[in-house]
Design brief:
single chain; about 300 residues; alpha+beta; Butyryl-CoA Dehydrogenase, subunit A, domain 3; 6 strands; RNA_pol_sigma-70_ECF
Length: about 300
């Protein structure tokens, strides 16, 4: 007689996959963690009767994440300013053979593109195209027929196809360019920055109305380069530091004040040998999982004094 696996051990083995599914559906680290914890509580009560923990838990997580996404979409209608996903420090789901593909699916650009899909389309796309679930399991997870799921997947792929080519980039070249960018940024070298920025580059922030922001964003090589140079000097003078870190599978950075508290995060979108976009998250509600969060307004006042300025 084969001994049944320990429920807690089975759950922990699946936790990385469950979180990764939830995050790609919700774009929220904190809500994904809540979804996974809720799934555990449900699994714990019925574990003895579950034949396939993976099927059961992925179904529960998918349905909970869809509910979270639907609720979040209503809140986002009144969101102040630009909305970005919560920055993801590391994706716990490891598959060396598909590392680049999985990283691309959590990039800021990909997650923003996923926002165009309906919740069901998004869930089906994540389960089928990202994690390779067969249609029988996808259908069970979203409570639809297999034919319906095939149609949902087809529609989702069409919506995603328009932006897919934007994610194709040689990762070694990307990381080398990002290193040059952050080096020029630290040095305040405006000419070097201009060479690395695309003509239509945009610098955009998500503050949710709870931190300083750049309005609708700053656009164009010259304007963005000048803002970057104007930013780094005062920030470093007050003890601020730049911590390079891959975020959402992309080159990025975490800005910290002199006490090590998080001010904001940046991610770079790189294509064709140039930085196309710099996305910064300032909303403190989206940064708590990164570490203790600084008062961005106080950092702004200290760095730029009465003049004011960007963060």
């Amino acid at each position: 007689m084969t001994e049944s696996p320990d429920p807690a051990e089975a759950f922990e083995d699946l936790r990385p996959l469950l979180f990764s599914i939830a995050y790609r559906i919700t774009s929220s680290v904190t809500e994904s963690e809540d979804v996974v914890q809720d799934a555990w509580l449900r699994f714990e009560r019925v574990a003895d009767t579950v034949e396939s923990p993976k099927s059961f838990l992925s179904t529960v997580v998918t349905r909970l994440a869809i509910d979270v996404l639907r609720s979040a979409r209503q809140r986002r209608e009144s969101y102040v300013g630009e909305w970005f996903p919560e920055p993801l420090l590391t994706d716990p789901y490891e598959d060396p053979e598909r590392a680049a593909e999985l990283a691309d699916s959590v990039s800021m650009a990909a997650l923003l593109l996923l926002e165009r899909l309906s919740p069901l389309e998004r869930a089906v796309f994540v389960l089928r195209d990202v994690f390779g679930f067969d249609f029988a399991d996808v259908a069970a997870a979203v409570d639809r027929s297999e034919d319906a799921c095939r149609q949902l997947a087809s529609r989702a792929r069409r919506h995603m196809a328009a932006g897919r080519s934007r994610f194709a980039v040689d990762r070694r070249e990307r990381d080398e360019l990002a290193g040059r960018f952050f080096g020029a940024f630290r040095d305040g070298d405006v000419d070097a920055l201009r060479e690395l920025l695309a003509a239509d580059v945009h610098l955009v922030s998500d503050s949710g109305g709870r931190a300083p922001q750049w309005g609708a964003g700053i656009f164009g090589t010259d304007k963005v380069a000048r803002v970057l140079v104007a930013l780094i000097g005062p920030f470093r003078q007050i003890g601020g530091r730049l911590e390079l870190h891959e975020l959402n599978g992309e080159p990025g950075a975490i800005f910290r004040d002199r006490d090590g508290q998080v001010v904001n995060t940046w991610t770079l979108e790189i294509l064709d040998g140039q930085v196309q976009a710099i996305r910064t998250v300032l909303n403190p509600d989206k940064l708590a999982h990164v570490g203790p969060v600084a008062d961005a307004w106080a950092v702004l006042r200290e760095a730029f004094g009465a003049r004011g300025g960007p963060l």
